[in-house]
Structure formats: structure tokens, C-alpha cells
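This follows on from our talk about sequence and fold. Can you supply me with one protein entry, sequence and fold together? Could you add the entry underneath, on a fresh line?
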Amino acid sequence: MMALKHEPDDAPQDHLWSQHVNETSDAMDLTPGVFEQDDPRAIARSLKDSAESSTRRKAPPFRSAMSMLVFYINRAGKNLPQKRVNVLEQAKDELRDLYGKPRKAA
């Protein structure tokens, strides 16, 4: 695995870690704008479709879809308004429903 170069704070950061992962990983291809949708069910359906049609994923479809959602929340979390975080958290439960998995207890 290639080591990422740490640059001083004043250096231009052309390649952030998350950008590098998105550009070079074997992660599934997502529909553009999937995480900007307002409907948690639509986000979940799109992730499910992407996971099930992907030929590059290394985990089962549910795990791949949930991983992409969690990755996005974790990488963008500090910059997301609470309303957006709530929609994405609801999308997790919708994804669980689509795969027949139990919802997380509140």
C-alpha cells in the first residue's frame, strides 16, 4: 500500500486522504449526488442498487452499501448541517430495512 505524504499546513493539499481513497479504491461506483438527496429511502435504494451491481466490491452488498454511507458521514460530518446528518442517519435504517436487517435501537 502506498504511503501518503504528509504536507505542512501551509502547503497546498491537492490530494486529501479521502479524495485519494475515492479515486483509487475498489469501492463501488455511486450515483452522482446520492448523498445530497433529501429522501433517506432514495439514498438507501441508490446505495443498494450500486452495491448489488458492483463487480469491484469485496464484501457482501449490504456491508458495502453501509460502509459507503458511513464513510461519507464520517468524512463530511463536521461540515454537514445537523438536518443533513439526520437524513443520512435515517438512510442507514432505510438501508437496513431494504436488506431485512434490524434497525438500530434509539
User: Anything to note?
Assistant: The radius of gyration is 15 Å. The CA atoms of residues 69 and 83 lie 16 Å apart. The chain has a mean pLDDT of 80. The chain has four helices and no strands.
